[in-house]
Task: structure prediction
Amino acid sequence: GQNIDQPTEMTATEGAIVQINCTYQTSGFNGLFWYQQHAGEAPTFLSYNVLDGLEEKGRFSSFLSRSKGYSYLLLKELQMKDSASYLCAVLTTDSWGKLQFGAGTQVVVTP
Amino acid sequence: NAGVMQNPRHLVRRRGQEARLRCSPMKGHSHVYWYRQLPEEGLKFMVYLQKENIIDESGMPKERFSAEFPKEGPSILRIQQVVRGDSAAYFCASSDLVRSGAFFGQGTRLTVV
Result:
Protein backbone atom coordinates (compact mmCIF):
# COMPACT_ATOMS: atom_id res chain seq x y z
CA GLY A 1 0.00 0.00 0.00
CA GLN A 2 0.90 3.64 0.04
CA ASN A 3 1.18 6.02 2.97
CA ILE A 4 0.93 9.72 2.37
CA ASP A 5 1.32 11.92 5.41
CA GLN A 6 0.86 15.62 5.84
CA PRO A 7 0.07 17.78 8.88
CA THR A 8 -3.57 18.25 9.73
CA GLU A 9 -3.55 21.99 10.23
CA MET A 10 -1.24 24.99 10.07
CA THR A 11 -1.87 28.58 11.05
CA ALA A 12 0.05 31.58 9.74
CA THR A 13 -0.27 35.32 9.55
CA GLU A 14 -1.16 37.31 6.46
CA GLY A 15 2.03 38.20 4.57
CA ALA A 16 4.02 35.36 6.11
CA ILE A 17 5.40 32.14 4.57
CA VAL A 18 4.11 28.66 5.28
CA GLN A 19 5.67 25.34 4.29
CA ILE A 20 3.46 22.27 4.07
CA ASN A 21 5.35 18.99 4.18
CA CYS A 22 4.27 15.73 2.61
CA THR A 23 5.98 12.38 3.02
CA TYR A 24 5.08 9.30 1.05
CA GLN A 25 5.95 5.65 0.80
CA THR A 26 5.20 4.09 -2.52
CA SER A 27 6.55 1.84 -5.22
CA GLY A 28 6.77 2.93 -8.83
CA PHE A 29 6.65 6.65 -8.10
CA ASN A 30 5.52 8.64 -11.12
CA GLY A 31 4.90 12.13 -9.83
CA LEU A 32 3.48 14.20 -7.00
CA PHE A 33 0.70 16.75 -7.23
CA TRP A 34 -0.45 19.54 -4.97
CA TYR A 35 -4.05 20.71 -5.05
CA GLN A 36 -5.83 23.53 -3.25
CA GLN A 37 -9.36 22.96 -2.04
CA HIS A 38 -11.59 25.62 -0.54
CA ALA A 39 -14.44 24.42 1.63
CA GLY A 40 -17.28 23.04 -0.47
CA GLU A 41 -15.38 23.42 -3.71
CA ALA A 42 -13.40 21.30 -6.15
CA PRO A 43 -9.68 20.65 -5.75
CA THR A 44 -7.74 22.92 -8.09
CA PHE A 45 -4.35 21.97 -9.50
CA LEU A 46 -1.36 23.85 -8.08
CA SER A 47 1.77 21.95 -9.07
CA TYR A 48 3.29 18.75 -10.36
CA ASN A 49 6.78 17.42 -9.57
CA VAL A 50 8.29 14.29 -11.07
CA LEU A 51 11.99 15.18 -10.88
CA ASP A 52 13.94 16.28 -7.82
CA GLY A 53 14.14 19.97 -7.15
CA LEU A 54 12.11 23.10 -6.77
CA GLU A 55 9.36 24.27 -9.10
CA GLU A 56 8.35 27.90 -8.65
CA LYS A 57 5.10 29.36 -9.82
CA GLY A 58 4.39 32.85 -8.53
CA ARG A 59 3.77 32.84 -4.77
CA PHE A 60 3.66 29.04 -4.68
CA SER A 61 6.65 26.70 -4.96
CA SER A 62 6.85 22.94 -4.69
CA PHE A 63 9.86 20.80 -3.90
CA LEU A 64 10.49 17.10 -4.37
CA SER A 65 13.12 14.67 -3.11
CA ARG A 66 12.42 11.22 -4.52
CA SER A 67 15.17 9.52 -2.49
CA LYS A 68 13.60 10.80 0.73
CA GLY A 69 9.99 10.36 -0.31
CA TYR A 70 9.42 13.98 0.59
CA SER A 71 7.80 17.04 -0.88
CA TYR A 72 6.79 20.43 0.37
CA LEU A 73 4.55 23.21 -0.84
CA LEU A 74 5.73 26.70 0.00
CA LEU A 75 3.23 29.53 0.13
CA LYS A 76 4.75 33.00 0.23
CA GLU A 77 3.19 36.39 0.97
CA LEU A 78 0.14 34.72 2.41
CA GLN A 79 -3.22 36.24 1.66
CA MET A 80 -6.52 35.64 3.42
CA LYS A 81 -7.82 33.86 0.31
CA ASP A 82 -5.08 31.25 0.75
CA SER A 83 -7.03 29.82 3.70
CA ALA A 84 -7.91 26.38 2.33
CA SER A 85 -7.04 22.72 2.47
CA TYR A 86 -3.91 21.70 0.57
CA LEU A 87 -3.85 18.16 -0.76
CA CYS A 88 -0.75 16.15 -1.57
CA ALA A 89 -1.35 13.36 -4.10
CA VAL A 90 0.94 10.71 -5.54
CA LEU A 91 0.81 9.05 -8.94
CA THR A 92 2.37 5.64 -9.45
CA THR A 93 3.38 3.85 -12.62
CA ASP A 94 0.90 1.06 -12.12
CA SER A 95 -2.03 3.23 -11.13
CA TRP A 96 -3.56 4.06 -14.51
CA GLY A 97 -3.53 7.72 -13.61
CA LYS A 98 -5.43 7.44 -10.36
CA LEU A 99 -4.16 9.63 -7.55
CA GLN A 100 -3.53 8.59 -3.96
CA PHE A 101 -4.31 11.54 -1.72
CA GLY A 102 -3.13 12.51 1.70
CA ALA A 103 -5.76 13.69 4.16
CA GLY A 104 -5.00 17.33 3.43
CA THR A 105 -3.54 20.19 5.44
CA GLN A 106 -5.92 22.93 6.52
CA VAL A 107 -4.12 26.27 6.34
CA VAL A 108 -5.64 29.09 8.34
CA VAL A 109 -4.43 32.59 7.52
CA THR A 110 -5.02 35.15 10.25
CA PRO A 111 -4.95 38.95 9.90
CA ASN B 1 -13.93 26.49 -22.31
CA ALA B 2 -16.08 24.31 -20.11
CA GLY B 3 -14.31 22.35 -17.44
CA VAL B 4 -15.44 19.11 -15.90
CA MET B 5 -19.18 19.37 -15.35
CA GLN B 6 -20.96 17.48 -12.63
CA ASN B 7 -24.63 17.43 -11.78
CA PRO B 8 -26.45 17.74 -9.63
CA ARG B 9 -24.36 19.83 -7.24
CA HIS B 10 -26.46 18.72 -4.30
CA LEU B 11 -28.56 15.59 -4.01
CA VAL B 12 -30.74 14.49 -1.14
CA ARG B 13 -31.97 10.93 -1.01
CA ARG B 14 -33.87 8.90 1.55
CA ARG B 15 -32.39 5.64 2.75
CA GLY B 16 -33.10 2.90 0.24
CA GLN B 17 -33.43 5.18 -2.78
CA GLU B 18 -31.10 5.32 -5.74
CA ALA B 19 -28.63 8.11 -6.45
CA ARG B 20 -27.35 8.93 -9.93
CA LEU B 21 -24.40 11.27 -10.28
CA ARG B 22 -23.36 12.58 -13.68
CA CYS B 23 -20.02 13.76 -14.98
CA SER B 24 -19.13 15.26 -18.34
CA PRO B 25 -15.34 15.38 -18.80
CA MET B 26 -13.46 18.30 -20.27
CA LYS B 27 -13.57 18.47 -24.05
CA GLY B 28 -10.96 16.17 -25.51
CA HIS B 29 -10.52 14.16 -22.32
CA SER B 30 -11.19 10.45 -22.55
CA HIS B 31 -10.17 9.39 -19.04
CA VAL B 32 -12.63 9.78 -16.18
CA TYR B 33 -11.97 9.15 -12.50
CA TRP B 34 -14.44 9.18 -9.60
CA TYR B 35 -13.36 10.03 -6.07
CA ARG B 36 -15.26 10.17 -2.80
CA GLN B 37 -14.53 12.60 0.02
CA LEU B 38 -16.01 11.95 3.41
CA PRO B 39 -16.24 14.87 5.86
CA GLU B 40 -12.83 15.84 7.25
CA GLU B 41 -11.11 13.20 5.12
CA GLY B 42 -9.04 13.14 1.96
CA LEU B 43 -10.22 12.06 -1.44
CA LYS B 44 -10.40 8.33 -2.02
CA PHE B 45 -10.21 6.83 -5.49
CA MET B 46 -13.24 4.82 -6.56
CA VAL B 47 -13.11 4.00 -10.26
CA TYR B 48 -11.34 4.84 -13.51
CA LEU B 49 -13.14 4.62 -16.82
CA GLN B 50 -12.56 5.20 -20.47
CA LYS B 51 -15.32 5.26 -23.06
CA GLU B 52 -17.33 2.05 -22.70
CA ASN B 53 -14.68 0.49 -20.46
CA ILE B 54 -14.06 0.21 -16.75
CA ILE B 55 -10.29 0.14 -16.39
CA ASP B 56 -9.84 0.09 -12.61
CA GLU B 57 -12.63 -0.25 -10.06
CA SER B 58 -10.45 -1.25 -7.13
CA GLY B 59 -11.86 1.55 -4.96
CA MET B 60 -15.51 0.79 -5.53
CA PRO B 61 -17.52 -0.86 -2.77
CA LYS B 62 -18.43 -4.39 -3.84
CA GLU B 63 -22.17 -3.87 -3.57
CA ARG B 64 -24.65 -1.17 -4.54
CA PHE B 65 -22.13 0.96 -6.45
CA SER B 66 -21.64 0.93 -10.22
CA ALA B 67 -20.19 3.25 -12.83
CA GLU B 68 -20.35 3.60 -16.56
CA PHE B 69 -19.01 5.86 -19.29
CA PRO B 70 -21.05 5.19 -22.42
CA LYS B 71 -20.02 5.99 -25.94
CA GLU B 72 -22.39 8.94 -25.93
CA GLY B 73 -23.21 11.04 -22.90
CA PRO B 74 -21.76 11.60 -19.46
CA SER B 75 -20.21 9.17 -17.07
CA ILE B 76 -22.67 7.98 -14.42
CA LEU B 77 -21.94 6.87 -10.87
CA ARG B 78 -24.92 4.96 -9.55
CA ILE B 79 -25.55 4.11 -5.92
CA GLN B 80 -28.43 1.78 -5.22
CA GLN B 81 -30.28 1.51 -1.91
CA VAL B 82 -28.35 4.38 -0.36
CA VAL B 83 -27.46 4.34 3.34
CA ARG B 84 -26.44 7.19 5.64
CA GLY B 85 -22.79 6.22 5.29
CA ASP B 86 -22.94 7.07 1.58
CA SER B 87 -23.31 10.76 2.47
CA ALA B 88 -20.22 12.41 1.04
CA ALA B 89 -18.92 14.62 -1.71
CA TYR B 90 -18.34 12.74 -4.95
CA PHE B 91 -15.84 14.27 -7.31
CA CYS B 92 -15.23 13.44 -10.93
CA ALA B 93 -11.92 14.21 -12.61
CA SER B 94 -10.83 13.92 -16.21
CA SER B 95 -7.54 13.92 -18.07
CA ASP B 96 -6.33 13.62 -21.63
CA LEU B 97 -3.42 11.31 -20.88
CA VAL B 98 -3.22 8.62 -18.26
CA ARG B 99 -0.35 10.24 -16.46
CA SER B 100 -0.96 13.91 -17.02
CA GLY B 101 -2.84 14.70 -13.85
CA ALA B 102 -6.49 15.44 -13.61
CA PHE B 103 -8.93 18.33 -13.51
CA PHE B 104 -11.77 18.07 -11.06
CA GLY B 105 -15.42 18.93 -11.32
CA GLN B 106 -17.29 20.87 -8.63
CA GLY B 107 -18.53 17.67 -7.07
CA THR B 108 -21.92 16.32 -6.07
CA ARG B 109 -22.75 16.48 -2.40
CA LEU B 110 -24.95 13.55 -1.54
CA THR B 111 -26.94 13.65 1.66
CA VAL B 112 -28.83 10.56 2.74
CA VAL B 113 -31.62 11.22 5.20
The longest strand of chain A covers residues 29-37. Chain A has a mean pLDDT of 93. Residues 13 and 110 of chain A are 5 Å apart (CA to CA).
